[in-house]
Amino acid sequence: MPVDTPVARSDPREAPGLRDAGPSRRGARRGGRCSLDAVLRGVVLAAALVFVALFVVVALGRLRYPFELEWMEGGVLDSVRRVAGGRSLYARPSLQFTAYLYTPLYYYVGAGVGALFGTTVVTLRLVSFVSGLVAAVLVGGLVQRETRDLWAAVVATGLFLACYRISGAWLDLARVDALFLALTLGGVLLARTRRAATVVLAGALTGAAVQTKQQALIIGLAVAVALWREERARAVRYVVGLVGTVAVVSAALEVASGGWFHVYAVELLVRHEIVDAEVLDFWTHDLWQPLAIAVVLTVALFLLPGRLERATRRFYALVTIGCVVAAYSSRLHSGGYDNVLLPAYAAVAVTFGLALHHLGHAGPRVSRALARVVLVAAVVQFGVLLYDPAAQIPTATAVARGDALLAELRRLPGPIAVFGHGWYAERVGHAQVAQCAAVDDVLRAHLDGVSDRLAATRARALRGHRYRAVIVDSQRSLACVPADLARYYRPAYRLRSPWPLTGTPTRPFTVWVPRP
């Protein structure tokens, strides 16, 4: 009937434009939730990219600085020049040259690059800068391989570079650590493959890392155990590559050095005393304080069921333990600065990326609320690691002080001894002297017949006034001069010299001249 028509049209559910009103509102709510998730993920990604940019800007800003960013850089350059000149790196310790207690690959790489571009501290920093970038990319590469999630990979890379300052601002220094870490992470990445030849190559790459810094051996053993738990044949191939590389290179170095290689690479290392304060400080100050959120997410990733495939979880758990143990063992030894923490921070960055992939997405096992909490926590973690990049870049005042120092050293009659910074004296024409840290490693190791002989040689040189001037560091204990120096030399005046930007805070400070 016609009278029914108005009744039908008056039903609100049938009114034009109202039939889909409920679903549209639900869609709007879903869109709002999705947009919030996207914003949080974007903020996390932006924070990671900020730290990538900060590292590049800081490293490029310090690359050409003509003085020491860290007090042992000059000694590393001396070692590279010795290798480039065809002389043995490992020889009897002397006041003219004493090697550092590291394995030699970085010095040979530096000499090779120096042959192309000049053997300077700038080229050595360039080697480290590139190696640091490679290490950061490999952190992301490990996450990308396991998750196929580019976002999580970039965030992991960003977290690793966010640890730049707390690991000593070290990745761009003329030091061995960046190359060692890049080789180590490369070995871990290749070890995840199934191809036999590639697994052998992974072991060889780890062996090259050991020949850059001995710390890599602990991580290599952890990788070998992880592979053994998965497939024994792969573990055997990896160990063949690792042990073969280390054994062959070490044997060649031992023969070429007349038996001195193992003294520097093994004996000096194991004779370092333990720093009792670091037994707990490593866990509280080095790991928990700056990386509490990343550590919590790492633990959650390994403990919560169903987040990682079992073999993958076991592999990364063992490798993470290996990296942390490598850092911890080095931190316990006297002289272990923040740079020894780099393997631990790299491992935490990898697991942080894996955790964000598995916990930062809402899904069957992760509620939307939990995913958002994880993303917000990631933003906070990046905020905790924020540092002032300007404080890491040398100023014009530092350059002026360095120029003034060189001018004063040039004015002094030779021979002079700048035990802590012999590179400065060499630059103005004075004879080379061994870097203090290397000499001190020998003296405090109490090697039979070696340490005492070196100490006696130094004492005779000072008693006999071999040097027309001795430059004593601002930290007297690091100046490599005996306690009775004042019997033979007297302080004359102070120097204007730049402070290093990282590492041990010491600089050339006082000129001492012979007593009549």
Describe the structure.
By secondary structure, the chain is mostly helical. The chain has 2 domains: 38-62 and 101-391, no CATH class; 395-514, no CATH class. Helices cover 63% and strands 4% of the residues. The protein contains 19 helices and 4 strands. A 4-stranded mixed sheet has the order 1-2-4-3, with no helix packed on it. The longest helix is centred in the first third of the chain and has 42 residues, at 21-62. It is globular and about 85 Å long. The termini are far apart.
Task: Describe the structure concisely.
The protein has 516 residues and is mainly α. The chain has helices at residues 4-10, 21-62, 73-84, 105-117, 121-147, 150-162, 177-191, 196-210, 216-230, 232-256, 261-270, 278-303, 310-332, 342-359, 368-384, 396-411, 422-427, 436-445, 451-463; strands at 416-417, 469-473, 489-494, 508-514.
Calculate the mean pLDDT score and round it.
Answer: 91
Number of helices: 19
| Number of separate strands | 4
Query: What series of H and E elements makes up the topology?
Result: HHHHHHHHHHHHHHHHEHHHEEE
Helicity range: 55-70%
- What structural class is derived from the secondary structure elements? mainly alpha
- Cross-sheet strand order for the largest sheet: 1-2-4-3
